[in-house]
């Protein structure tokens, strides 16, 4: 950063960071719904960022969004029009899942850096086209996985990468909510034509990233998947809400999914995720190795962190031991750090903080689960040669 130190996440609260404001970044926001509020709130804390425009296909929605912040950002109904008329450096894509791919490709083709909210997209085919556009553009494409910046999540990777557990051969992961279909945030999450995938994409991608990042994101090979929508399709589930019949009638995605995934390196991954279930948790995350195993307590509502002290199980000289890993207390604003790291990469023309090369495998698994569930059999995950 022009001779200044890199952004230090541990000093967000202390004000120790020195941010070079001589080089400013002009940002546009694509999609001005609920998640866009978090993007704008983070950007407005950055002295070197100007949010100058926004686009939303709903008439008046972008204007209402920016009026809330007393912003003079220019508003558009068309992404193409905004990209053509504005001299932007970067965009945040905050649209619903099924438009992630087209918006990302349009922005990359326009020569802009892109922060793409999770999930990356809906299908593996869309992911391939996004990566092609990224490679052609030479720009930064980072995917919105803020849990990566949680020190507790980073500790999981440190433990695994240290070799303390030996060769990893089995992983159990997942989690979810007893009651947590996100209808309070509108219907775009639960409709097939907008959400595309449900709990799988919303919180399942986080759960997969936690363990796949820890083991170095090996290539997925095959998937046997299952999906259901028993709660989402039930009017009884929405009792007490404003539109119980409407929600049940239009629900078109998964509210529960499970899978058995084979990964390169002779690793198997047992996965389950839920927006709704008659259970407090489908189980803790477990990473099993030849020298030891790691248990990561589940959370009440999968929020991208850990649910308590982690435990390492080992056999030392014939003695069975258990080592507790304390929770790392912190007040880091993970969402802010996600965007700050992206802006730094844009200014430095450095590598994406959360690269598509990793998240593409995450997306391939999600898509494989969906396709396997629909076909009722195991499917092979085919990664095109030379994609990276």
Describe the structure.
By secondary structure, this protein is α/β, with parallel strands linked by helices. The chain has 11 helices and 15 strands. 31% of the residues lie in helices and 23% in strands. A hairpin with a 2-residue loop joins strand 11 (285-289) and strand 12 (292-296). Helix 4 runs parallel beside helix 5 (124-137), helix 5 (124-137) packs antiparallel against helix 11 (356-375) and helix 6 (151-161) crosses helix 8 (199-214). The two termini are 27 Å apart.
Strand count, sense and closure of the main sheet?
9 strands, mixed
Poorly predicted spans:
1-16
- Report the top-level CATH class of the largest domain: Alpha Beta
Share of residues in strands: 15-25%
Widest sheet, order of strands: 14-13-12-11-7-10-9-8-15
Radius of gyration: 21 Å
Write down the CATH topology of the largest domain.
Answer: Dihydrodipicolinate Reductase, domain 2
Overall pLDDT confidence: 93
Tally of discrete structural domains: 2
Written as H for each helix and E for each strand, in order along the chain, the element string is EHEHEHEHEHEHEHHEHEEEEEEHHE
Identify the overall geometry: globular
For CATH, the homologous superfamily of the largest domain is named as: Dihydrodipicolinate Reductase, domain 2
Distance between the termini: 27 Å
Helical residue percent band: 25-40%
Quantity of strands, as a count: 15
Structural class: alpha/beta
Which architecture of the largest domain would the CATH scheme give at its second level?
A: 2-Layer Sandwich
């Amino acid at each position: 950063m022009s001779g200044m130190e890199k952004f230090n996440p541990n000093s967000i609260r202390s004000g120790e960071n020195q941010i070079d404001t001589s080089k400013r970044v002009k940002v546009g926001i694509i999609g001005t719904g609920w998640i866009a509020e978090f993007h704008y709130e983070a950007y407005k804390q950055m002295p070197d960022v100007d949010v100058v425009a926004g686009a939303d296909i709903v008439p008046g929605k972008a204007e209402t969004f920016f009026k809330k912040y007393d912003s003079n950002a220019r508003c558009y109904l068309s992404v193409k029009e905004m990209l053509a008329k504005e001299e932007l450096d970067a965009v945040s894509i905050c649209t619903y899942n099924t438009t992630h791919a087209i918006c990302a490709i349009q922005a990359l083709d326009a020569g802009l850096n892109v922060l793409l909210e999770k999930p990356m997209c809906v299908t593996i085919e869309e992911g391939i086209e996004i990566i092609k556009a990224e490679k052609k553009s030479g720009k930064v494409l980072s995917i919105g996985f803020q849990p990566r910046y949680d020190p507790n999540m980073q500790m999981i990777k440190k433990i695994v990468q240290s070799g303390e557990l030996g060769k990893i051969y089995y992983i159990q992961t997942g989690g979810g909510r007893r009651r947590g279909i996100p209808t309070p945030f509108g219907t775009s999450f639960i409709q097939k034509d907008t959400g595309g995938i449900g709990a799988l994409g919303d919180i399942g991608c986080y759960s997969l990233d936690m363990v796949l990042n820890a083991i170095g994101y090996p290539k997925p090979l095959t998937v046997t998947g299952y999906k259901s929508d028993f709660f989402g399709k039930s009017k009884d589930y929405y009792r007490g809400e404003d539109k119980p019949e409407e929600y049940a009638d239009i629900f078109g995605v998964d509210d529960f999914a499970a899978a058995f995934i084979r990964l390169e390196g002779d690793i198997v991954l047992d996965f389950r995720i839920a927006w709704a279930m008659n259970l407090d948790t489908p189980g803790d995350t477990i990473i099993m190795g030849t020298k030891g195993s790691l248990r990561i307590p589940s959370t009440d509502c999968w929020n991208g962190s850990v649910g308590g002290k982690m435990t390492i199980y080992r056999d030392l000289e014939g003695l069975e031991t258990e080592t507790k890993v304390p929770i790392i207390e912190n007040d880091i604003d993970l969402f802010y750090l996600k965007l700050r790291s992206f802006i730094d990469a844009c200014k430095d023309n450095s590598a994406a903080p959360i690269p598509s090369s990793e998240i593409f495998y995450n997306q391939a698994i999600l898509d494989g689960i969906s396709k396997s569930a629909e076909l009722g059999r195991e499917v092979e995950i085919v990664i095109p040669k030379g994609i990276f």
